[in-house]
Design brief:
About 45% of the residues lie in helices and about 15% in strands. The protein is of the alpha/beta class and about 400 residues long. It has two domains: about 210 residues, Glycogen Phosphorylase B (Rossmann fold); about 160 residues, Rossmann fold (3-Layer(aba) Sandwich), CATH 3.40.50. Helix 11 links the parallel strand 11 and strand 12.
């Protein structure tokens, strides 16, 4: 057997999210005889406020970790950005290009130098980037300087400037897209389609589901809920507005919100302002979210953009109908009127209407939940996910 391909996995993120969970699903199952992976992260973040650190989770599966502490933005860079924003307010394109130039000078190029110290000659065979192209530019440039093939795993709908797209086209060997929608967005940004490969995110449908959490105090209401980071992108504020509209109609509904993030305080204040604090439970990060998902009647995801959201996969695996915003990734999982309901992102009346329909029809909830579970089991196998990524890593640079 050939020696294992030596891979450096670079992730520039600073918080635990669905992409981190999907990365671990791969690392736990990938064939160590074929791939010897070392991870490089900028921050040893926790899984939630009290969960284990990244380093602890990687040590538990015997994956080495290299930490490159994040660089603090100097005052000169901050001032330069403010000047650029003031002078180039009239041209979004020129403003973005100038801001990228500032980032290149103070952050990206020094990061390239640090990465090259890790990518010593003959230490690695492949650089594997985990996030999206615009947040991995230092990886592309370091890979080029080290003469290594670069594989990008794009886990969310990307945003790319023309200069960034040119870098990706020049240097990416392959780009693994977690959904067809992500691939379509990259193609629309002029990324060569020959470099794009769709490998859907997946979930282990063979693992036993945990028993549902028993809510305390118990409720007789229909229970809806969402799981994810509490950031503006996730649209949880829209969900609170919909719950307020349902409450105004005197519909009995309780809303569970699982997750932590910078928007939590704002969301809690909004629940009070909307008069629904007694109907909404902020549960923070939960180590076993599926136990809480099992307690739901309806799953909800209101995001502005996604890649292929694990939270929808988890809700469907648990046999729950899902109401989701009609955005990249989510629309590939939810079959409208079969496994759940799609609505236009940001359309609060449409979101409210979708929830109202499912609240009023228990049989429809059961039918959609059963169809959703069948769809996940049949179409989003964890084995297919691992095999697809492994095939790309094997072929890259061969």
């Amino acid at each position: 057997m050939s020696p294992a391909k030596r891979i450096l996995l670079l992730d520039t993120g600073n918080e635990w999210g669905g992409g981190t969970n999907s990365m671990f699903e791969l690392l736990k199952r990938i064939d160590r005889r074929r791939f010897a992976i070392t991870c490089c992260f900028y921050k040893d973040y926790r899984q939630g406020e009290a969960g284990r650190r990244l380093s602890e989770e990687l040590a538990a599966i015997d994956i080495p970790l290299i930490l490159l502490p994040p660089r603090r933005q100097p005052l000169s860079a901050k001032l330069a950005k403010e000047i650029v924003r003031a002078l180039l307010w009239w041209s979004s394109r020129l403003k973005k290009r100038a801001l990228l130039g500032i980032d290149m000078a103070w952050r990206i190029k020094p990061r390239v130098a640090a990465l090259l110290e890790i990518l010593q000659p003959d230490r690695f065979d492949l650089l594997y980037l985990n996030n999206q192209p615009s947040s991995n530019l230092e990886g592309y440039l370091a890979g080029e300087a080290a003469a290594l093939p670069v594989v990008q795993h794009c886990r969310i709908e990307p945003t790319l400037q023309a200069a960034e797209a040119a870098t990706v086209n020049r240097l990416a060997t392959r780009i693994i897209c977690v959904s067809q929608g992500v691939a379509d967005v990259l193609a629309a940004r002029q990324i060569a389609e020959s470099r794009l490969c769709v490998v859907h995110n997946a979930i282990d449908s063979q693992a036993a589901l945990p028993p549902p959490v028993v809510l305390s105090p118990p409720v007789a209401d229909v229970v809806i809920g969402t799981v994810g980071q509490l950031t503006a992108r996730k649209g949880v504020m829209h969900l609170l507005q919909a719950v307020a509209a349902l409450a105004a109609e005197e519909l009995k509904v309780t809303c569970l919100i699982l997750g932590e993030g910078p928007q939590r305080g704002e969301l809690e204040a909004a629940a009070s302002r909307l008069g629904i604090a007694n109907r909404v439970r902020f549960l923070g990060f939960q180590k076993a979210p599926l136990a809480w998902v099992q307690a739901l009647d309806i799953g909800v995801l209101c995001s502005r953009k996604e890649g292929l959201p694990r939270t929808v996969l988890e809700a469907m695996l648990a046999g729950k109908p899902v109401v989701g915003s009609d955005v990249t990734g989510t629309r590939e999982l939810i079959v409208h009127d079969e496994t759940g309901l799609l609505y236009p992102y940001g359309d609060i009346p449409a979101l409210t209407s979708a929830l109202r329909r499912l609240i009023a029809d228990p049989q429809l909830r059961r039918t959609m939940g059963e169809e959703g579970r069948r769809r996940v089991v049949d179409g989003f196998s964890i084995d297919a996910y691992v095999a697809g990524v492994s095939r790309v890593l094997e072929e890259a640079g061969s």
